[in-house]
Amino acid sequence: MAELNNPKHMFYEDKFEKQEQPYPGLQNKMEPVPDCGEKSYTGHSRLEGRKALVTGGDSGIGRAAAIAYAKEGADVAINYLSDEESDAQEVKSVIEAEGRKAVLLPGDLRDEDFARNLVHDAAKAMDGLDILVMNAGMQQYQKDVRDISTEQLKDTFTINVFSNVWMLQEALEHLPSGGSVIITTSIQGFSPSDILADYAMTKSAQRSFIISMAQQLGEKGIRVNGVAPGPIWTALQISGGQPQESIPEFGQTTPLGRAGQPVELADTYVLLASESASYITGQIYGITGGMPIN
Ligand code: NAD
Ligand code: MG
């Protein structure tokens, strides 16, 4: 019989060392390195032959989704910023070790032409597109609203919101009936923090986009859902996402008393992409260690 584990004590539960990197950060330089399922995720052929594009697939939550998809039998294209090449190469190795195709498509989602072409490039390289995971995100904390520069405001909205719209518009050329769109939103879209005002606004905008698109695309047989993570140990948090003084106890005020690891979200991305979710659309799944989303 398999051992039953206490979720409080699964994965890393000690204090984190303070550590800071410039945006967007490299997870291969983090201590501890986030667990994205390289060894801890086991596939069950739930996405055999599917083709998926995952933005922000080099690290963190997107990497966990990309790795799980490959382990479930899908080919996977990932997008990331060129500074993140070393993280992306690691993901490529894991996908290829599963015998699946890995397509690396670096580029900046603030560039509308790039964001639009990305979808077509991915579909071309994989000969189709069944699953679109829009997960790339920017989060820069500011303790005083007056310190949110216009540049930060525009970048955060462009990456987190506008690129979702641009990419979905293009993806409709490729997504078949049975296709699935998944957007990584956040608990911040439900319970905004004082220091993440601009970011939280983008995460609420994503919530509303998910619900609008689920209604519009139901007729085509395309499902649209979201995932709303709570505090997950990723590069986003140590590259301007949180003040350094919040790093040691990051995630420890959740009911489960610790930060989540990216792999703990992987099964939900797989479920939402798979036919097991045939009657699930327009929903947002909280994966928060117990913090309420409502
Ligand atoms: P991460 O830093 O590992 O991933 C974010 C990715 O976004 C980066 O790897 C980068 O490739 C991509 N990105 C950022 N700016 C980009 C740009 N201009 N062009 C192209 N790609 C760009 O961190 P993560 O926490 O895994 O973030 C993934 C998603 O999860 C984000 O949407 C984030 O808002 C959301 N989220 C994270 C947490 C958390 O606690 N980590 C909580 C809630 C929501
Ligand atoms: Mg990254």
UniProtKB/TrEMBL annotation:
<dbReference type="Pfam" id="PF13561">
    <property type="entry name" value="adh_short_C2"/>
</dbReference>
<dbReference type="InterPro" id="IPR036291">
    <property type="entry name" value="NAD(P)-bd_dom_sf"/>
</dbReference>
<protein>
    <submittedName>
        <fullName>SDR family oxidoreductase</fullName>
    </submittedName>
</protein>
<feature type="compositionally biased region" description="Basic and acidic residues">
    <location>
        <begin position="10"/>
        <end position="20"/>
    </location>
</feature>
<feature type="region of interest" description="Disordered">
    <location>
        <begin position="1"/>
        <end position="44"/>
    </location>
</feature>
<dbReference type="GO" id="GO:0016614">
    <property type="term" value="F:oxidoreductase activity, acting on CH-OH group of donors"/>
</dbReference>
<keyword id="KW-0560">Oxidoreductase</keyword>
<dbReference type="InterPro" id="IPR002347">
    <property type="entry name" value="SDR_fam"/>
</dbReference>
<comment type="similarity">
    <text>Belongs to the short-chain dehydrogenases/reductases (SDR) family.</text>
</comment>
